[in-house]
Amino acid sequence: MSSTALTTAGTARPRAATDAGSARLRWSRRLEHGGWFVAPFFVLYGLFVLLPVVRGLYLSFTDANISGDHTGFVGLANYREALRDPLVWDSLWHSAQFTLWVVPLIVVAALLMALIAHHTVHFTWLWRLCFFAPFLLPSAVVGNLWYWLFQPTNGMVNHVLGLDTPWLTQKSTALLAVVVATLWWTVGFSFLLYLAALQNIPQHLYEAAQLDGANAFQRMLHITVPHLRSITGLVIALQVLASLQVFDQAVVMYQFGPGPEESTRTFVQYTLEEGFTSCRVGYASAISFVLFVIVAAVALARMWLLKNREEATR
């Protein structure tokens, strides 16, 4: 071996040792600057999130039952069955219908509520409290509340509207009832996001536009809407992800059933029925990962659109 090679080999080992030592030093400094404070979170996250996900992924390739006995590996059989299962597609369609109804309604209602609360001079705190308070209620309370409000004989909805519609017992209005209850319950969170975004719009833009002769609609169209574009994208993404996983309020409103002619059976509800009613934990795990892929695709699409928009505005 030449002297040059020996010199290179001799200097490579100390350099590698130096790199390893500096890496350990950086890691220890990170721990000193707060790493130990977040360590319990990562431990709990691994135990209660990552470990169940990995366990569920493994079960999706087995024929496991709810007791955990006689578990055998079946490969992709559960996923092939899910693709051929008509109830999977029906429940997915119900979740998609719910999403297509709820998301636009929440965006419009939250924006209008934020505009009212932002421009109201008197009792501003009361408007904000009334708009946001329903979001603090548990899902079981919301489900039972709207179960009684939608009763055909003594329910407040029919009494106020002057109708006698059996909202919860006919297929054409069953899912709509869940949409109305969810809109009332969850719009407060989006309202809060819009209200914060409205307060961050510089006031001098409105004053300059008003001096130029722009009316209220023109100021709304050319100042408010463009400044709320990013928050609107965030609201849409969050609501789509939440609506695809709808479960609680629909189940409580229909007394833990799938509604008339199974018209309100959502994807999450069908997954739980297969896992805990039919006791097919392996098949239910496979179905849940189908939903996981759909939700992940929506989230990644949102990130991709946001990244492209940021690059286009540079």
Question: Topology of this structure?
Answer:
Blueprint lengths: L2 H57 L17 H8 L1 H34 L4 H9 L6 H11 L6 H6 L9 H29 L3 H9 L4 H12 L1 H15 L4 H6 L13 H11 L3 H33 L1
Explain what the structure shows:
- The protein is 76% helix and 0% strand.
- The chain is mainly α and 314 residues long.
- Helix 3 crosses helix 12 (267-277) and helix 12 packs antiparallel against helix 13 (281-313).
- The longest helix is centred in the N-terminal third of the chain and has 57 residues, at 3-59.
- The model is unreliable at 5-12 (pLDDT under 50).
Give a short summary of the structure:
The N and C termini lie far apart (55 Å). It is built from 13 helices and no strands. With 314 residues, it is mainly alpha-helical.
Helical/strand content category: mainly alpha
Q: What characterizes the major β-sheet?
A: none
State the helicity in percent bands: over 70%
- Mean model confidence by pLDDT: 86
Number of helical elements: 13
Tell how many strands the DSSP assignment holds: 0
Global Rg? 27 Å
The fraction of residues assigned to DSSP E strands is under 5%
What is the rounded distance between the termini?
Answer: 55 Å
**Gross morphology:** globular
Low-confidence stretches: 5-12
Q: What is the chain-wise order of helices and strands?
A: HHHHHHHHHHHHH
